[in-house]
Model the fold of this input.
Amino acid sequence: MITRDERGIPYLRGGDVVELAALQGEATAHDRGWQVEIDRRRAEGTLAALIGPAGLDWDVFARRARLDDTARRAFAELEGEDRSFVSAYVDGVRRGMREVGARAPEFAELDALFGERAPLDDWPDHAPLGILHVAHALFSSFPSLLFGEHVARTLGDDWVDLLTGADDAEPSSGSNGWAVHGSSTESGFPMLAGDPHRLFELPGVYQQVGLACDEFDVIGLAFPGVPGVAHFGHTGHAAWGVTNAMAHSVDVFRERLRRVPDSPADAAASGTTAYEALGPDGWRAASVEHSTIAVRGAAPVEVEAIETERGTVVTDLSPLADGEFEAWSVRMPARADRDLGFAALLPLLRACSAADVVTAFDRWVDPVNRVLAADRRGTVLSATVGRAPDRTRAERRLPLDGRLTRAVGDRRMPPATPVDTIAVDANERPTRSDADLGRAYAPPHRARRIRELLEAQPPATVDDLAPIWGDALLGGLDDWLALLPAGADGAPATPDAGAALDELRAWDGVMHADSAGAARFAAFREELVARVAALPELARLHDPHPFGAIYDPWMGARGRIAAALPGLLHAPALAAHRDALVRDALSAATARPAETWGDEHRLLPLHVFADIDGVADPGRDLDAPLGGDGESVRCTGSTPGVTRRSWRGSVARWAWDLGGRDRSRWSVPFGASGDPASPHFADQLADWVAADPPPVGPPPGGPPPVE
Done:
């Protein structure tokens, strides 16, 4: 049975887990048919066949990384009930696509644009595994490792630590999570809360759902296209939420490749090419798959997917002087172990205690997450889960030399620890050495601020959490203010710049949407980024990189420089420029027209249609003004010096009350439906902008389950 509440959120009840999975698949196809079809095609490397050239760069990456093959292998390893659970979900998706999903308006708009109808194939059974893999394939540390390689080659090794986050300035940081022990709450039961930070994809990254059968009754945030609720859930007896552990979860290898002079006869007959890769044991044959990417409205493109003994080659090949090639491969644990963590999904739904949650997550693979779990007995646990190669800190800094380095096994995750007061996770560097699995972490600003707020006014109920979700104090404010000139010796060059300096010194540091001070600070920061990016010392950072177009977002010099400021200005090579750069940036910022932060700091929903000429972007009218900033608790990240539009931040807000599930809260940026014509397409946007998620409430048609 499928019922919906007043916001269109589906609540599903089946007789058993198989029937329930089929209902979840059906409801997901009804609500998010376009979205799940896009994500399935991303996993398969067939996106361009639907949307045209805009999907080609992704398809090349997906084929090279062998995402679909990894999903097939992992599905083949599933056994018994896990396999039935996934297959039933896919059966539901097939039914839901035939009933409703295939009629999503985006499909018809593309058919009109290209002047032909694109048939939609039935989903293969392994599709959900591919979709989960896609959600995390570029979510790991490996694009940043490639950027480190680019820095080392263009500027030199001395710049790597300054620009890649060794001093806790990792620009891809995201997610807040906190736990409050029952000894501090009004009910005497624990509370968990947080908000994951990802791209503002439209439709939204997460789907609110209720899942019930004779065994369990769960609410949570699901990945559309994946059964169960992996990241955030409440079973009535136990609850959990995750943040990214910022671990070094994949190895990247610099590969030396060569074409094989005497290819096998079958390869020669087909016109394909064979390769060898140089490793610690000499030259060894590499696996090569040749395929053709169909591109709607354009010519097909041939792709070579090479896999060495170390991993899949995920970059372009760069010719070397000796006729060989250089490229970079990635060893993903999901591929190496033929496991995408799906064995964790059913145990999570059945969890009755915090310990059950942690035990279920023992089966998790990628990415490495920090988990906060709690139960009605009052237990609160903090755990680190997933798989990561057993590498030293020095080995996590840059890609490894594949000629000299072998793959290694996974390291043991640290044991879960009890929480007896509060716990906060915000991607910061952990204090426990056994949980320090990465190299670059988010700055400590968000974690420190959340802890300060929790300690200053301990929340009695989830109703007291809105000020935390909505806190817009600029992270690292003191570091920025320390750059400003002080006293007569450091006076700015013009009287107008002096007025801007006075304005910044008087500003409270809060990035409210209606704040003129926040806008003046943003202008100063943008002008500073532009000037630092133009320094001759950093000129070569703008050079083209050798990896491929899919990595362009990670290689943008201005974005990386912005993420490294203000600490970058203390580098010996730049310190002599610092005062002049700051004065010039202040003067330029003063010349900007008066405005507020929200005038230009507005939501940027990322719909696939934004990259396709000739179709209307459904997110074009959802550009709400936003408070916050990239490293405030209310994360609304932009790219200073590039755009003020916010393209990354809280893609859900959630609070699980173990004293009563119907008193929990949740929201997403847009709505339950992916159909732009639906009243539930963006009906949650106002609550999300207010950072005040509404109560979950009882499921439609009946009271909440007995706890």
Summary: The CA atoms of residues 168 and 443 lie 5 Å apart. The radius of gyration is 25 Å. DSSP finds 24 helices and 25 strands in the chain. The chain has a mean pLDDT of 93.
